[in-house]
Every structure is written in structure tokens, then in C-alpha cells.
Amino acid sequence: MSALLWALIALPLGAGAALLLSGRRWNALAPGLGLAAAAGTFGLAVASAVFRPEASAPLFAGVRAGLRVDGLSAVLVVAVAAVTTAVLVASPGELGPRENRGRFFGLMLLFAGAMTVTVTATTLPPLLMAWEVMGATSWALIGFWWHRPDRVRAADTAFVTTRAADLGLYLAAGAAMAGGVGSLDLTALTGAQGGWRHVACAGLVVAALGKSAQLPFSFWLSHAMRGPGPVSALLHSATMVAAGAYLLLRLHPLLVATGWAAPLVAWTGGVTALALGVVAVAQRALKQLLAASTSSQVGFMVLAAGVGDPSGGTLQLLAHAAAKSALFLAAGAWLTSLGTEQLPALRGAVRRHPLLGAGFVAGALALAGLPPLSLWVAKDEVLAAARAQSPGLYALGLAAAAVAAGYSVKALWYVTRPLPHDHDHDHDHGQEQDGGRRGARGPTRSVSTPVVVLAAAAVFLGVAALPGLSGPLRGVLGGGQQHAPNPWEMALSAAVALAAAGAAWWWLPRSAHAPRTASAGKRWAADWLSMERAARAVLVRPAFALARALAAFDDRAVDGAVHHLARGGLTLARGAARADDHGLDGAVRAVAAGCRRLGAWARRPQTGLLHQYYAQAVVGFTLLLSIVLLVR
Amino acid sequence: MNENLAALLPETILLGAAVVGLLAGSLLPRRRQWAVAVLAAAACLAGLAATAWTMATGREQTVFAHTFAVDAATGLGRLAVLGGLLLLVAMATRTVRSHARESEFYVLLLMSGAGTLVLAGANDLLLLFAGFLLAGVPAYALAAFAKDGRGTEAALKYYLLGALLGTLMLAGTAVLYGAGGSTLYSDLRTTLPHASPALVAVGSLAVLAGVLFKAGAVPAHFWVPDATDGALAPVAAHVTTLTKVGGLIGAYRLAHQVLWGTALDWPGLFALLAALSMSLGNLAAFFQTSVQRLLAYSTIGQVGYLLVAFPVAARTGLAQQSLLFYLLAYTVTNLGAFAAVTALPHARTLEDYRGLARHRPALAAVLVVCLLGLVGTPPTGVFLGKLEVFQAAVEGGYTWLAALAVANTVASLFYYLRWLAPLFRPAPHEQPSAAHRTAGRGPVATACAAATASLLLGLAGGTLLPLTTGPLLR
Amino acid sequence: MLTLVTFLPLLACVGLALAPRSVPDRVCARVWAGTAAADLALVVGLWVGFDPHGGMQYQQNHPWIPAAGVGYHVGVDGLSLPLVAMTCLLFLATALYSLRETRRVRSYVCLFLFLQTVSVGLFVALDLILFFVFFDLSLVGMFFVIAGWGHGGRARAAALTFFLYTFTGSLALLLGFIGLSLAATPHTFDLLELVRGNPLAGQGLYAGLVLLALGVGLAVKTPTVPFHTWLPPAHTEAPAAGSAILAGVLLKMGAYGFVRIAMPLLPGSWRRYALVFVIVGTVSVVYGALVALAQTDFKRMIAYTSVTHMGYILLAVGAAGVLAGTDAQARSLAVTGAVVQMVSHGLLTGALFLLTGVLHDRGGTYAMDAYSGLSSHAPRFAAATGVAAFAGLGIPGFSGFIAEFQILTGSLASQAVATTCALTGLLITAALFLRALRHMFLGPSRLPAAAPATGFRDLVPSEAAATVPLLGAALVIGVAPRFLLDVVEPASRTVTQLVAR
Question: Which residues cross the membrane (chain C) (predicted)?
């Protein structure tokens, strides 16, 4: 059985590496090959979900690289493979034949392989390896169009931020080793001795929050939106950002065992869900809005992990993955065809491409959490679990749900407006956004189909979790029944979502024509709560200042000290040479030269010189004598 | 009483060859005077054979009323001096070829060599002084051999300083005789501890002044830079290298046989001398631009390292071993450097050596081996010697002296590199400059041979080291 | 066998030196490449016949200077064999890279062949004096490489600084060796006998002083803060091949010395002063990374990252010396990581320095702000540098991760605070490599004024053949490290046991 698991990993990784190396050489073939690999991976994933293989290999002394497909990961591997396939189907629309398709598809497959390893890993080293490879592929994909410095800088920011959080995993591995968990097994972490359990837990939590763009790391996700649409759809909505939440879901026993971690995680998730929801509302660019909403929605998953509701969290993950990748693919398609992602410029986008538009609308409605769509079901599940823990968390979650309805409707409202008349105006926006790099091309059927399929999934996935029908899912995930939502809870959340959506729909036309005087709070929210500015002010700039100061110190003080030492030696040497050569010999030679000039017959110049030598030698030996006599 | 003249075979051969050479030189026409060089070389070879025979058959003995010891130290000294003389004769052939007094040169060299051997083996203060004179007087003449202004000046300085310190030495001998009632080391050893310390101190120091002059150690080093710079390169090589062998072995014998028994702090004094010599020599060498002057100061520094073995002589058996081996390695290596200088008679300053590696790769290689060898870079012989010396110093409790020697070694690297670096710098002209014209095959071959020997001493030093052990005979 | 591996390059060197002058330069370079390939093949043979659990193997022990307790004793175990293999691979890469060298090729080739003998010899030496001989000769060889083939007017000054500084270190090392040998009865420099005898056990101050001498000597060569300042100028002025060898092989000599000599021979003092090494290592990591972050010269930046990477090694070996509160697994993990880091750093930094050589060859400068968007001119070059940079910042899948993960995981147990500080090194290194990539390779294309009008040529086959295998080896170690770890782990367990006694 382990061969199945190795194949599941090797196929995307191998195919990805091969495509990456081929570069442009097989540009025409790349989409087909990539898709075939993704489809194959999907098949293997389904087979793995059925057979539940397990595999491990020795890695370090006493540490094995373990992989296993269990209930939770079975769902995840299938979902990852499915979304990957859907996104790759849609990709050729945005990645035209003139692009380096081998690189793109290769990186996407590499990423999918790494994500598969992440979700199946049972020990820390493979988890950490795949985790960081995801980060690296994310860097390469965000900066895919590397001619533009701003995109590359965005990629750098995203990578450095997530890597800062990744250090938590290194810390966790060390703490596990120190705590006596020599196998670095994820499930054994709970048994770490002494304070090391807390350290390990803290490290894992930091890493997970960073990868999932939770507070206070969320800002990198905003930068990640510089990448191509399919990248946002796969990495920065459906899979990679969900990996952190997934890890927390999986490690719930550890969170509980520390005592402090579970509430901390729950509250962080809740606050992120609300705060980033507000941020999403304040955005004026579609992809930025979706990105902030991703953080917010992942916040619900983190909340679920904190309150110990794996099935709710997983359902939220799946539903969100489907909805958000559909939305991102649509946004990317519009960006390609209309050249803009500014909301006001996207008016009537839905009407231009009806099929694509239908998919977008369905996805947005699901994202709004409107009943009876999947995210409503999932969120109710999570909220029920949260209520069992603390009423405060429940209230927070409800508020976040209301905000979710608000930003979803905002996006929906703009794209469903009637077509404006002045196309040129729109195009100006586009030029400003994307430099008019690509001409307006219609999104092909290749984009519409996956969008519709994903949106359909977002709509209907909820059925699987409705009370009474959720048996199979729970069976797969192995979660308990303890937090099934009450009917009144479901009614309340439905009412909140509908009310918020209605309010937003009513309010938007009024605010859209109002004069643009954004309040300070609104600007703050639009700027993603100024997290990046804070990080730059508190960490990055001091680090660079310190670096420059140390470099100067290194050049002047450390190196200088060495040279001073050397210079001191040289000065001493000069002194010695002078005393021997010039003071003595030089004077002597001057005398000698003078005497020679006076006359060759005079045979006495050397006598004068030797007087000095004599004096020196005699004084020297006298000193030695006194030393011998005095020091006994 | 042992009056076995065969024990003094090497010395006798040298003196005999000198006499024959003198006679032959006056009879032979100028063109044929090279025969004297052949004679000298043959004498050296014969002396080496005799030494090897003595050492191989283990004929350690003291002869002539114990005034001369034939032991391991003498044996090593003979090897070094005779081997060195051989190299000197080989490197000097071109320098003095067809000179009006060509044969005299070799005769003086042989006599001075014989004197050096006497210094090394002397077990009696008077014989020591005799060795001092026999080694010194021909060397004074040699220093002035070129008969130019610089050479004359050099010789005069050398001679007059030697005269002063020689007088002092004789006076010291008299004082010690007065204090101990004998000039024989074995007698002094028993009598001096009971004599007045002041008298012993004055006398011993005065005697030491003479041998330190031969060794070129501080504070009797003043002649070294001038004499080396002024004299012909082979002569400079002789006075800075071979006489040093005799002087240091003589001093070691004196210290070990006589001084250690007295109540004075001789180890401290020698440690001081070592520290002063190495520091002064190395520091003063820093900014020299003349290669011969640079080598002169380098030899003063080397005496310092050699003296490190003295303070620990009584405490560890390594001291003698390290001193003798270092001397042997130093002789070969320093002569190699001087041979390279002899081979390039027109290159007097460091700048003249620029680009040498391109035009004279063999000589450049010799310089690399010998100069880095003088620094103590493995695997040359001096490295092994230095290693032994350091080992002896640390074992004898003079770690600070070893550390100082290490610091000095680093400092010395600086000026050796000032010489080495230009070798590999592209020369200003593509054509070999006049400074790179060699004096002929002989010196080049000598230089190569010396460098090879220096390397071999390092690589195969293990076979020679056992020869350096063995007690000093009384 | 080991003697053959060691001295084969020297034989070739002598052969070339004695060959008639009419032998063309190209032949010399090919002879070098052939010799290096043959040597590597021999090492592969050694590896195949190596038994990981067999301790020291392929030993040869002949008396050399018996009177001084010095012998010609060579052998390999799990610590040295990977380094020997890495050395031979790196020299082969350098040989291939240098096929296009045009300046005084014969002496250049001879010097490098000499350096290869010296480097391999150092790693197989089991006698302290033999070790020292090779240690010192490596300085001599590198001095001439930098002074003779360096670029820029400051090459000679840099070479002089390098030689004087590292020579000082080597003499401190010699004093330490003497101190070690004198403590044993009979006096010996044989490493294995000294390990067996552990002569300095219980000699507090004396052992401490010996460790100080050894520590300073090795730290200069490694180099660690504050003895690192010879490194940046030496690298900046050295030719690319020289830099690759200097960083890839010569720096390892210091780090290897810690594992091979300082730890097993002075276990007591090592344990007592382990904290010093931990602190020095941690400071090197963070300080080196920060100073590298502020560099504007690409090659200088890489030079400083070497300080960081070597700092990890020191952290690991220091942590392995602290016994309190750690289990043997963690300590052995740290030491294994340290050895892997030596191999990994050799491969990756060797590749990076060869690539900077390409940069200088085309653009005439290392200044990062002189270039931009090189990817459009030289995609292969950019890809290779990008891969090397990511591998250098420790991305999983390459050898650097395998090393750093083990070091950090193994060290945290005993040195939580220091290791946590050292973790930031990972982040800063990532930031600085990404910054360099962004400045030079990405964005709009711009070349320095000094670049030829023909533009920036991509990697030519000989350059690719030199760098890609190095990166490939790093990838293999990163993906399937067992073949290496199987060899290293038993040896590092032995070392930890020796330290703990």
C-alpha cells in the first residue's frame, strides 16, 4: 500500500520538476502534461482515500519521515488534487502561449506535491520540508512575472513573512527532541516533557498562524495577490493558507494539553475572522477583497481548531476552497480580459460572460454564508462548537459572519451592475493597474468550466454536513457528534447573514456615489490594519539599520582592530629598524661617508663608527652582567 | 691520556687541504686555480665520510686530555659545517672564478671551517678561544675579499668588533681560570659552584661574549648586517651560517657543562637573550630593501629561535636534540637562500626580484622553499626544528618563550613575503631584466640542491633525529 | 589507497612542473581535470568499500619522525570520508570551470593540484603534525593563488592579510598540538593514541590553555566572529576558482578540526567551555547574517554568509558538549548536522562562488546595483544562481536544510536561548539572498557600463558542467540523505561518546 502513497507524492513532484526544467521547450505541451499529471494525482488521491495507505522511510537518526492518509488527510488529499486539477484546467486562459508555461505548470505541480506531503505527514521533518517548499514555490509563483520589480518585492515580502513564522516549526522540532520525543512524531508531541511541550506548541501555533495569514501575519497575503490568478486561486485561497488551519485542527490534542493554546488559537481565529472581514469590506480591488476574506474565512477554521471541532473546520476548509478558488479564477479571468480588478471598473462583468458570471455569483453567495449554501452550514457547525466554549467567541463569530455577508455582497453588487457605456474609462483603469500588458482577451471556456464546477461544489457541499446527512463525513473525519448546531442557532445565523447582506445591498448604491472622503478608520482597514507598516517599523527597518551599523562596525572596529595591531607591530618594527639602522648605523654611515669624501688616505672613518658599536656591545654585556648578578 | 688523532680526522683534513691548497695556489696558473676548489670540495667530502664513519661506529670519546669532545653534538656540527662548506664551495665557483686570489679564497674558507669545528668540539676554554681565532681571522680576510669599499668597511667592522669581544673572551677565560683553577670544563664543573658568584658571572659572561659574537646574537650582533651587506654573498653566507653552528654548539657545551652547575640564573639570561635576538632581528628586518641585509637580520632572528633551546637544556632531553637538528636544517636552508642570491649577482634589492618566477622558475622555487622554510612552514627541515624547539620550550616550562617565538614567526612572515610576493608579480618588462641574469649553472644547481636538502630534512628528518641524541662528553 | 588518493594530484603537479615548456596550456588544464576525475573515482571506490560501522578504515601508519612521536598515519571514518568526497568533487568542478583560464595556466594548474593534495591530506591525516603540515601548506597554496591570480590592485594586500592572519592561527594551533603531545607518555602526535589515552583528563588549567590555543587556531580558519575579517577581502580579491576552494574546502579545515581534534582529545575542557563555543557560534550566525544583509557587493555578501553557516557548526559542536538536560540522540544529531553542514556548505558555496566568477567575467564587477534583470540575458545562469541561493538559504530539498535542521533540532535541547537566537539567522539569510536575486536577476534589464557590447553571455558548457553537478549533489543529499547519514551518524555517535567520557 505504501507504494500508492509514494506514487501520490512522486507523481506531482516528479512531473513538476520535469516541467520546470523543460522551461519553454515544451511550451505547447506543458498545459496538457500538467493537467494529465494533476488528473493522475487526483486518481491516486481518490485511491488513497479509499485504501488509506501508510508509509515511512528513515530520515535522521531515530527520526523517520512518516506519511499516512487517515480520515482528515484523506479528505484533504482529494480536495487538493481536485482544486489543483480545476485550477490547471483554467490556467491556460491567463497563461498564454507566449508565457513560460513549463515553469508555471511545473511550479504548480511542485506546490501540489508539497501540499500533499504537508497534509499526510505524520512526523515533523517531512511536514517542515513540504511546508517550506510550499513557501518557496509560492515565492516563485507570486513573482512569476519577474520583469516587474513590484511583483518580485511582493513575493519577497510574502516569503520572508511566512518564513519568519516557519521558524516556529524548527523551534517545535527542537523542543520535541529536547522533550524526549525522539521520533518527532506529531501525535507524540503531547507527551513532550516539562516546559518543552509548551515551546513545541507555541512554535507550531506561530507557524500555523503565519502560513494561514492570521493576525498578525495577514499582510503578506495582500502582497501575494500580485501573482497570476490561478496562483491566487490554488495557493492563496484554497490550499496553502488552509494548511496552517489544517495543522492546528490535526494538533488539537496538543493545543488542549497545554491549556493556553486552545483558547489563544480560538480567539486569534475569531478576531482574525472579524478584523480581516472588515478589511475586506474596505477594499476597492476585487483580489484584495477576496484575499482579506480568505484570511477572515480561514479564521473560522482556526477558530474551529481552537474549540476542537475538526469536522466543522474541515467542512469550512472544503467549502471555502471551492468557493474561493472559483471566485479567484473568475477575478483572474476578468483581470486578463478587462485589464482591471478595481471594483468600480468591473461593473457589469457578470453580464459580459454569463457562464463565468453565474459561477462567480454562486461562489459569492456561498461566501456570504447565505442559507442553504455550504459555508452557512460549515459556519454554523463551527459556531456551535464555539458557543459551547464561550459566548464571547460565539458573538465574535456571528459578527464575523455578518461582515462576511457584507463584503461578499459588495463584490457581488459591483459586478452585477448594468454595463457602463464608456468602455474607455474602464480601460484606463486597467492600464493603471496592469500597465495594459495583456490585451483584452475573452476568457475561454477553459476558465468557465472549472469556475462553474467549483461554484457548484461550493453550493452543494453543505448538504453533506446538514444535520442528519452528515454521518458519512463525520465517519471519515472521526469527529464526535457533540457540537451539532441547534435549529435556533442555524436560524439565527441565517437571519444575521441575510440581514447583513440586505443592509449591504441597500447601502452600497448610496455609498458608491457619495464623495470619497474616507475616514481614518476606513483608511486603516483599507491598509490591512497597517500591519505591514508596523512590521517594517518594528522589525525590518531596525534590522537593516542594525545590519548597516554592524557592517560599519565590522569594517572599522573589528577589521580595524586587527589592522591597528598590525600597524602597532609595524611601528615597533620601524622603531627597531631605525634604532639599529638609522639612529646608529645611519648616523654612522653619514659620518663614514663624510670621512670618505675628505680623503681616501684617511683610514679612520670606520673607527668612528666602531666606537658606537663598541659602546653598544659593552653596555649590553654590562647590563647582562648586572642581570645575572641581581636576578638569582 | 687519549691522543687519538684519528678522532680529529675532519679537522685535520680541512687544515691539511688548506695547506696543500695554499701551496698549489701559488704554483698553479690562474686558469687552473679551479683545481683548489676541487681540492676543497674533496676535503669536505672526505671530512663528511670521516664524520659518518665516526658516528656510525659510535666512537664517542674525548681526546687530548679531555680538551676536545667527539660526541653527538660535535658530529652534527661537523655534518652541518662540512656539508655547508661543500655548498659554499659550489656556490662560490662563479663568484671568484679567475680572480687573482681564487685559491686563497678556498684556503681561507677551509681554515675558517676548521676553526668552526674546533669551536663546536672544544671542551676547554683555551681551545674554545683557539677555535674562535681560527674561525675568525680567516673570515675577516674573506669579508674583505672583494677589495671594494663596501667589503673593506664590512671586514673592518667585523674584525674590530671581533677583536673587542675576543679580548673580552680571553679575559673571561683568565677570570674563570682564577675562579676555578682550570680551563677544562670537567674541572670547572666541580670547582665553579664553590667560587665567588660575581667572579663566575663576570668570567662566564665574558667568555659567552665571544661565542655569542660568533653566533651573531644580541648584543654582539652589530657586525652582522654590515658584514653581510658588504661582503660577497658566499662570504656572507659563511659568516652568518657556518660560524653560527660553531658558536652555538660551543655556547651550548659551555652552558650545559659548566654554567648550569653554578648558582646563577643562566636559564633566565638565555631566555632573555633569545627573546631579544628574535624580536630585534625580526622587527629590524621589516623594511629592509636590500636582500642581503634582510637575510642578515633574519639570521639574527633565527639565532633567537635557536637560543630558545638553551634555557631548558637542563630540564628536557629535547633541548639538545632540537638545537642540533634546527642548526642542521637552518644551515641548509639559509645557504639555499644565499645560493639563490649568489646566483643572481645583479639583483640586490627586493624590487629586482620582481617577475623572477616567470624568467627563472627554478630559482623562484628555491626561494619559496627556503624563505618559507626559514619561516618554519612545513614540510621543510626548519619546521621540524622549530617544532622540536617549541616542544622543548613548552616541556621545559618556558611556554611564554614559545609563544613569543610564535609571535615572532608571524612577524617574520611579513618580511619574507615582501620578498616572495614580487617573484610572482608580472615584471615591468616582458624580457628578462639585467637583474635576472644568473651567475651560471653552478650557483643555481647549488641553490636547488640546498632547497631539496631542506625539504628532505623535513620529510626524512626522522632518520636523522636519533643522531642528535647522545650525551655531551666531559 | 588513501596515500594514492592524497598524492595523485601532487604527482600530476610534479609531472606538469617538469614537463617541457612546449606543452600547451589547454593540455595542462585537461590534465588537471583528468586527475581530479580520477581522484574522485578513487574516492567513490573508497566509499563503496567503506563499512559505516567499522570505525577508522583504510589506515596506513608508518613512523615518520619516531624520535618526535610523529608518524605518517592516515585513515578515514564517517567524519572525514564525506569531506574527502566533497573536496574531490569540488576540485573537479573547479578544474572544469578553469578550462577557460588563460593566465599562466601551468602554474595555476600546479597550484591547484598541490592544493588538492593538501586538502585531501588534511582530512585523512590522523597525526597532529601531519594535520598541521597540510593545514599550513593550504595557506601557502592559497596565498599564491590569491596573490597571483586575484583581480584588482588590492589582491596582494588581501593575500598578505589572509596569510598573516591565518598563519597566526595555525601557529596557535601548533602550540596547542605541542601541548597535547607533551601530556602523553610517551610523547606522541598520533591522534588515535591520544584519543585512547585522553592524557589531559583532569588537568584543568593546562587543558584549558591547550583548548584555547586550538580554539583560536581553528576559529581563525573556520572563521568565526571576531576572527573573520580576513575572509571578505580574501574572497573579494581571489579568483573565482580560488574562492570556491577557499570557502568550500579550506574553511572546512577549521570546522573539521573541532570535530576531529578538539572534541575527542579534550573532552573535559570541551564540556567545561562548551558555552563559549555556543556563544561564539551564535554570534557568528546572527552577526554574519546581519553584516551580509548590509553588503552591496555580491561576493562579499556570500563571504559573510559563510561566517553564518560556519557559525551553525560551532553552535552544534558546542551544544554537543553541554551534557546537562540532553539525551545522546540530540547531541549526536547536532554533530551529524555539523558534518553535513560542512559538506553542504562546500558544495553550495563552491557553486555560488563559481557563479560569481561568471558574473565578474561578464560584467567586470560584483556590485549588486550594477545589474538588474539578468534573467532575460542569461536564463541558465539566473536559474543556477537562483537554485544555489535558495539552497543556500536552507530550503528543504537541498543539503543545507538537512544540515541546519539537525543542528537546530539537536542544539535546542541544551542551548535553548542560543539556538533560538540562531534561528533568526535562517530568516536573515533568506532575506538577503532574496534581495540579491531581486536586485540582480529580476526586474527590468540593465547591465553595467563595463559589460561588453555583445551583452551578457549565458553559462557556457564548461561553466555549467562545473556548477550544475555541485547543485545536483546538494539536491541528492537534500532529497535522499540516507547514503550520507549512514556514513556520518555512527561516527558522530562516537564523537559524542568521546566527549561525554
Answer: 79-98, 105-123, 129-150, 162-184, 204-220, 240-261, 273-294, 301-326, 338-360, 381-403, 415-437
Please tell me the distance from the alpha carbon of residue C301 to that of residue C308, in angstroms, as a whole number: 11
DSSP lists the bridge partners of residue A185 as A123
Say if residues C36 and C92 touch (Cβ distance below 8 Å): yes
Q: Is A167 on the interface with C (CB under 8 A)?
A: yes
Which among A582, A609, A612, A624 is the top mutation candidate for probing chain B, defined by the most B β-carbons within 10 Å of its own β-carbon? A624
**C-alpha closest to that of C348 among C169, C477, C203, C181:** C477
Chain B residues with CB under 8 Å of A619 CB are 219
Shared domain check, A301 and A165: yes
Residues A490 and A446 in one domain: yes
169-188 in chain A: CB under 8 A from chain C: 170-171, 173-175, 177-178, 180, 182, 184
DSSP character string of C257-268 = HIIIIIHHH-HH
Instruction: Identify which of A133, A146, A159 has the shortest CB distance to residue C397.
Output: A133
pLDDT of residue A594: 44
CB A136 to CB C427 under 8 A?
A: no
Question: Is the residue at B22 inside a domain?
Answer: no
Residues A400 and A465 in one domain: yes
Name the minimum distance, in Å, from the CA of C170 to any CA of chain B.
10
In order of A215, A277, A532, the CA distances from A529 in angstroms are 10, 11, 8
What band does C413 get if pLDDT is binned at 50, 70 and 90?
A: confident
Best to test chain B binding among A572, A574, A580, A607 (most B CBs inside 10 Å): A580
Report which DSSP code applies to B259: G
Q: What is the pLDDT of residues A279-289, one digit of tens each?
A: 998 888 888 99
- Looking at A467, A482, A513, which one is the last position of a domain? A513
Task: Please indicate whether, in this complex, the C-beta atoms of B280 and A569 are within 8 angstroms of each other.
Answer: no
End-to-end Cα spacing for chain A? 88
**How many domains does the structure of chain B reveal?**
1
Nearest to A381 by CA among A391, A390, A394: A394
* Mutant choice from C140, C171, C188, C220 vs B, greatest count of B C-beta within 10 A: C171
The three three-digit cell numbers of residue A24, written as one number: 519553454
Contact B355, B420 (CB under 8 A): no
Return the pLDDT at A507: 87
H-run or E-run covering C75: strand C70-76
Query: Considering CB atoms only, which of C290, C292, C375 is closest to A546?
Result: C290
Domain containing A420 equals 123-513
B425 touches chain C (CB under 8 A): yes
DSSP for B110-172, written as a single string: HHHHHHHHHHHHB-BHHHHHHHHHHHHHHHHHHHTTT-SHHHHHHHHHHHHHHHHHHHHHHHH
Cβ contact B280–A576 (<8 Å): yes
Do residue C160 and residue B414 have CB atoms under 8 angstroms apart? yes
> What is the Cα–Cα distance from A443 to A441, expressed in whole angstroms?
6
8-state DSSP, C395: -
Q: Could C168 and B387 be called an inter-chain contact, meaning their C-beta atoms sit closer than 8 Å? A: no
The pLDDT tens digits of the residues spanning A54-91 come to 999 999 888 899 999 988 888 899 999 999 999 998 88
- B362 occurs within a structural domain: yes
Residue ranges of domains in chain C: 273-501
Pull the grid cell for residue B59.
666512537
Q: Quote the ipTM score.
A: 0.85
Please say if the pLDDT value at position A591 is more than 60. Answer: no
A437, three cell numbers: 500588458
Same domain, A491 and A544: no
